[in-house]
Amino acid sequence: MPDFSRGAAYVDGQLVPIAEAKISLLDWGFLHSDATYDVAHVWKGKFFRLDDHVERFLSGMGKLHMSIPHSHDDLRSILVDCVRASGLREAYVEMVCTRGFPKPGSRDPRTCTNQFFAFAIPFVWIANPQKQTEGLHLIVSRWQRIPPESVDPTVKNYHWLDMVMGLFEAYDRGGETTVVVDTRGNLVEGPGFNIFAVKGRTFTTPVRGVLEGITRRTVIEMASEYGYEVVQRNLPAEEARTADEVFVTSTAGGIMPITKIDGRAIGSGTRGPVTQELQKGYWALHEDPHHTFKIDYE
Amino acid sequence: MPDFSRGAAYVDGQLVPIAEAKISLLDWGFLHSDATYDVAHVWKGKFFRLDDHVERFLSGMGKLHMSIPHSHDDLRSILVDCVRASGLREAYVEMVCTRGFPKPGSRDPRTCTNQFFAFAIPFVWIANPQKQTEGLHLIVSRWQRIPPESVDPTVKNYHWLDMVMGLFEAYDRGGETTVVVDTRGNLVEGPGFNIFAVKGRTFTTPVRGVLEGITRRTVIEMASEYGYEVVQRNLPAEEARTADEVFVTSTAGGIMPITKIDGRAIGSGTRGPVTQELQKGYWALHEDPHHTFKIDYE
User: Fold this and answer.
1) Could you report the average pLDDT of every consecutive run of 10 residues in chain A (298 residues)?
2) Could you give the residue range(s) of every CATH 3.20.10.10 domain in chain B?
3) Cα distance from N-terminal residue to C-terminal residue, chain B
4) CA dist A257 → A231, B192, B288 (Å)
């Protein structure tokens, strides 16, 4: 019996254990990072906002001139199949479309047959449970986020070397994670997350050059419901440093407090009340049938 | 008997037919395009400037904080083994180092074991033989090359979405290939190639934000020997459009003429004498023992 307990993947139209989930070295999804992807998550056996993730994924594929013979509903089914095969109740569920291979001898992407992959693996956290309470130490990187004039950030993509180098820089400078900046030093985003600064009853979050995160969207919706104002504009590093609270948002962990930036405490230096309120509300939404659906594991 | 005739690869320490050469979907080389690579070529059974490629590859790995248990000489041997297994006399030979996987539950790249892959496949041309004589129609893209403040271009990398989107734009506008630009509209590079403009006895080639191509270096060395001056500086699109000749350089095909830019003829609109002289000289160097070494296929 194949062991699906560490995850399951959909490759070449088949469900396989994650250990066997592979892509050809020659696929341009690897050789040119010519791919788009999305990640949804499963919490207590329920998918959270899956349709929003699938919709964004299909939109990204369109912008990259990619197509696959799967409808929105097909994709939903494949992702559910991956989770069901793995048996995981808390899972990180990724869908990927790659360019594929060109015709022999060609370098024309239009000759490629686009490829679809998906996999479910155990839930991944940007911050471990202790850090979700204590908060993370964030370093404002000297590296700049790849600008929208080079790569459309609304197409979720694997161009991460800026953030990887930012992480190494953050570790060197005593931090735990990083946020990369724009040409003027405004904060943009970190490896897999959006960022918010709270001042009074206003949330400020960067808008230019960022991925339009689904967790970011959830926070914007919650803010409106809770009576906070959300402003989407440039966020200078100094404004984050002097905010009451700072938090980051990601499918990989939800809402996570930043309690220190570049060695200096944010606000009280501990997780603030707004961040706590949002964390509580975020996980409560995971019981809301409007945002979730239950996987039938039988 | 496994069929190595379409190429051979080195994966997990084993030589395998190219059709079996695969990488895990979970390797960050794929999921974060966290990888560096290099490509050398074999012509008439001889490697061309292999040591220069291996040296650049090892330098890129260092800049990305990657390491593998293979010396320069080990890498040479592995690459020769790939070519020998394939039997190919004209081959495109790629070496790749990926970040690998983090420890379970971690997102810290320092916990990863870096992975090495290599493969030899039939030689790939950016321009087919007819186009090497006729010249290509180049479109100056509206897309900007990922800037050096985001990704160090001297680390040869797979962040190509800017160039892929540039290619689609070029096809839409009636062209055959593309060159992406910087924030001021200066030409930077194309998908896999550097660019040169010739005016009188001077070659101008972009210097900022470009990969320091080995074929580019070969042209610079040849220029000096043939009595041309080479200037490395910004190259505005208009200067290329009004040049006597324009050519591009790549391991995937050597020196290739650009005879039209954005629908307008360059110079006479046919391959110019300087480009021809360089093409002849470039292929002659493939007989020069200083730049090549013969593979023992027995």
Assistant:
1) 90 97 98 98 98 98 98 98 97 98 87 97 89 96 98 98 98 98 97 98 97 97 98 98 98 96 97 98 96 95
2) 129-286
3) 18
4) 19, 42, 62
Domain B129-286 sits in which CATH superfamily? Answer: D-amino Acid Aminotransferase, subunit A, domain 2 (3.20.10.10)
Question: CB burial class (10 A; 0-12, 13-18, 19+) of residue B146?
Answer: buried
Sign of CA dihedral B159, B164, B167, B173: negative
A252 in contact with B, Cβ within 8 Å: yes
Question: Which residues between 12 and 41 in chain B have a beta carbon less than 8 angstroms from any beta carbon of chain A?
Answer: 18, 21-26, 29-34
Judging contacts by C-beta atoms under 8 Å, the chain A residues touching residue B127 are none
Is the pTM higher than 0.80? The answer reads: yes
The CATH fold of domain B8-122: D-amino Acid Aminotransferase; Chain A, domain 1 (3.30.470)
d(CA A266, CA B105): 27
**Intra-chain end-to-end CA distance of chain A, in Å:** 18
Which B residues 182-201 touch A at CB under 8 Å?
183, 191-192
Q: Is A136 helix (H, G, I), strand (E, B) or coil?
A: strand
Domain with CATH 3.30.470.10 in chain B: 8-122
Q: Helices B273-285 and B214-226: crossing angle, nearest 10°? A: 110
Contacts of B160 in chain A (CB under 8 A): 32-34
